[in-house]
Amino acid sequence: MVISKHLLGLANTPREEITLILKTAQYFKEVLSRPIPKVPTLRGKTIVNLFFENSTRTRISFELAEKRLSADTVNFSAMGSSVAKGESLRDTVRNIEAMKIDTVVIRHHAAGAPHLLANWVEAGVINAGDGQHEHPTQALLDLMTLRDKFGALENLKVVLVGDIQHSRVARSNIHGLKKMGAKVGVCAPATLLPRDFKEAFGEDVHVFSNIDDALRWAQVLNVLRLQLERMRSGLFPSLREYAACFGLDRARVEAAKKEVVIMHPGPINRGVELSSDLADSEYSLIIDQVTNGVAVRMAVLYLKCGGDLEIANGGS
Asked: What pTM value is reported for the model?
């Protein structure tokens, strides 16, 4: 299999490559459980983390993955850099590339920024979230978490709940889940669904307007954060009413009288989209998602930085 040096999104990533990433991540998950959780597979490689948006989990997860692979890491933040003086993205990246780097991990507020970057530089580009477009490594770690739990993704019923309109996590998850054979649904107020939803994702994605209906259908509910910073006013009456109509708590889940698991990409607005007692309950896979995030990002970095596939194919 020919592996692209870029990971820009899951919309254009083949099922075979997704499967390879997940298989490789399982190996690295075992590495992370060792007394010394480190391998020399990317020794001599230089990776730049280029973050133009605030991030905690994604940035720390990438940094830890790079260190576990023995790569040299450079962390860039727009705040305090020449970007604050008006330097363009293209000039910023080309200046960094002149320092002989191998891979750029980029998070940017503009949709499509990683794609532009891939046309400008020779280094590999990994999308760590671009605007309202995609967040492929988050979707990959979600897929890994579900495969660990259920053994397979084929025909698994997964509903994404909440702010679909502004969520790059939702877009990557829908693309990834469909490619892996899962049955996908969304549940949200009509004002938080993209206008072109069916054109973008297909007629086979179930749309629920009632959270209890979604609960009865789903095996998995992946609950999304309300991205208030991206919203204009008037999309729903109030946070209290949103929580009453679309929020999840233990009582609502137990009333469904079925087995279901809860996921969330974080950060959680506790008491709005998800109650604390449910987020920390036996229904929750949220901590598993965080753990798998490092393994998945190790796999992506390894494969995109020229790994020879020996690990993925069963080598040690």
From this structure: 0.93
Query: Do residues 171 and 133 lie in contact, with contact meaning Cβ atoms separated by under 8 Å?
Result: yes
Contact between 58 and 105 under an 8 Å Cβ cutoff? The reply is: no
Maximum distance among all alpha carbons in the chain?
Answer: 59
Q: What is the C-alpha separation between 272 and 262, in angstroms, rounded? A: 15
- Token representation of residue 22: 């997940």
Domains of the chain: 15-133+292-304 (3.40.50.1370), 136-289 (3.40.50.1370)
Q: Which of 162, 183, 163 is nearest to 174 (CA)?
A: 183
CB 42 within 8 A of CB 275: no
Sheet arrangement for strand 261-263: 206-208, 183-187, 157-161, 220-223, 261-263
Give the pLDDT confidence of 119-178 residue by residue, as tens digits.
999 999 999 999 999 999 999 999 999 999 999 999 999 999 999 999 999 999 999 999
CA distance 14 to 12: 6
Phi-psi region of 80 (alpha: psi -120 to 50; beta: other; left: phi over 0): left
Give the C-alpha separation, 262 to 280, whole Å: 10
Query: What are the C-alpha distances in Å from 109 to residues 112, 173, 300?
Result: 9, 19, 22
HSE toward the beta carbon, residue 164, CA cutoff 13 A:
29
